Structures are given as C-alpha cells and as structure tokens.
Amino acid sequence: MKLAEAKMEFVQNWGAIGSSWGIPKSMGQIHALLLATNEAMSTEEIMETIQLSRGNVNINLRELINWKLIQKQNIIGQRKEFFKAKHDIWEMATNIVEERKRRELYPALSLLESLSKESIEGEADEVKHFKVMVKDLHEFIVQMDKLSGLMVKLKKNIFFQRMLKMAT
Prior knowledge:
Elements: H1 3-20, H2 25-36, E1 41-42, H3 43-50, H4 54-66, E2 70-73, E3 82-85, H5 89-117, H6 124-155, H7 158-167
C-alpha cells in the first residue's frame, strides 16, 4: 500500500471513529489528516485533500484549536494560515479528556448536585429510587473525574512509564 492510500484510509476511519465518540466526522477526518502529515497544511490543502467545503474546514479547524489538538502556524512569506497537529499522543489524549470533562462531566456533576439538594415530591418509593440513582451516578462521575486526573499524572511518572514498557 502506498503512503497516500494509507493516509486516506486512516483519515476515513478516524473520521468514522470520531463520529462514534460524539465529534463530527469531518472534524475527525481533518484531525487525522493533520496527524498523518508531518508538515503544516493550509485550509486549501485540507479542503482539496479530503474534499470538504471551506466553511466546514474552517469551523472544524477552530474547534480542533479549542480542543488544543492542533495549532496555527505562520510561515514567513505566506499570507495563508497553516495548521499542524500536536503529535504527542499523551498530550492529545490528555487534551481530549480535559475537554470532554469540561463539556460533559462538569455539567453533569452540576446537574446531579443541584438535583440532590432539591426537595422532590412524589411517591415515596419512586423518590427514594431517584435520590439513590442521583447519588450513585454522582459518586461514579466523581470517581471517573479522579481516574482521568490520575491518568494525566501517570504520564509524567517515570516509574509508570517504565512499567508500561516492561509490560509490552
């Protein structure tokens, strides 16, 4: 398989995987293209390579910047904007985890904390069931938050890195 074919297969599949994770397919494709490419790419190059509209590419590039997965680069003598993926996989994973926590986990925690403080009226068994479910879900999400924090800390832990190398 030629490199260009392998890159396009990666781009297509990463986009499909991304959509199952809740991000737009085109955002996943753009990220995959930039990951698979060592050099910075312009908006036009991205549009041409994966056949997406300028608007779609621009919106998703901004979102990938917000997620801290890519960065904008200026090239001397060029008026175009160029974009390059961050290639450190641990940093990428950490940024994704942090962004998902900010967008999903923390709002869910806020909702559950608010519901746990509410005085809820209704049939006693149903109210009790609801309160227990809210409490259990809150505890679970707090544990997931702690676990993701531990994952981020482990990346910097030399002992953990050596253990992973020995295990593989």
